[in-house]
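Entry 14: structure prediction run for Transcriptional repressor NrdR. Input pasted below.
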Amino acid sequence: MKCPYCAHLESKVVDSRPSDEGASIRRRRECLACHKRFTTYETMESLPLVVIKKDGSRQTFDKSKLLNGMIRACEKRPVAFATLEAIANEIEQTLQNEMSREIPSDRIGALVMDKLKGVDEVAYVRFASVYRQFKDISTFMAELSKLLEEK
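Run finished. Output tokens:
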């Protein structure tokens, strides 16, 4: 690490502790040439996820959009906001762990539907109706029938 005072390239770490709720590490360093101390922060570099929309356009993944969609599906339902936040975090982590940086929107929708199905069936059907773009009552009934068969 280059010293900000004398530009010497070697320093030693004097103190190291977590910062930003574990998202980064704060390090106190001492220059081996001028013996002055300075602070550095180390953070994990994460590559942005890109969502491939149905029309072929690409957009940066935004967890708040995912969360807003689930909030709308759970409107007036007994689902805690903390539960939806946890689901959004799980989905984001699942996508980050995949090898691909480009994720089709239908993959994200399938993950959301899978999680909502276990939390609230009404919210699941609401989300599915928007996500799958039901054209008529028969496709809607087919989805409900699948849900009933699984029970």
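Notes: The mean pLDDT is 88. Will compare against the previous run tomorrow.
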